[in-house]
Amino acid sequence: MFGVVAKQLKSHPALIPLFIFIGGGATMSMLYLARLALKNPDVSWDRKNNPEPWNNLDANHQYKLFTVNMDYSTLKKDRPDF
């Protein structure tokens, strides 16, 4: 399989950027999915010790990857304790 791809790349060098960008996009999407599965408070992998991890987050905890014009350190608590 790899020999066929290598042969095609040698005969058509214009395909090299296509392979690079498709491979980079697939890698970045898998890394983002892994980050969502491990860091997002909506996902609970440990049901015995902490079944509701979203209740332990502070009001100024940033769990989003990218926010525009938002300073989480100045937020006040806007929900009750349970």
Task: Describe it.
The chain is mainly α. It has one domain. Helix content is 41%, strand content 0%. It is built from 2 helices and no strands. The model has no long low-confidence stretch (mean pLDDT 80).
List keywords for this structure.
mainly alpha, elongated, single chain, 2 helices, 82 residues
What is the element layout, followed by pairings?
Elements: H1 2-11, H2 16-39
Q: How many DSSP-defined strands?
A: 0
Report the average pLDDT across residues. Answer: 80
Q: Quote the beta fraction.
A: under 5%
Compute the CA-based radius of gyration.
22 Å
What general form does the structure show? elongated
Q: What is the count of structural domains?
A: 1
Structural class of the secondary structure composition? mainly alpha
**Sheet with the most strands?**
none
Q: What is the overall number of helices?
A: 2
Low-confidence stretches are: none
Helix percent band: 40-55%
Ends distance = 57 Å
The SSE string, one letter per element, is HH
Provide a compact summary of the structure.
The protein has 82 residues and is an all-alpha fold. The protein has two helices and no strands.
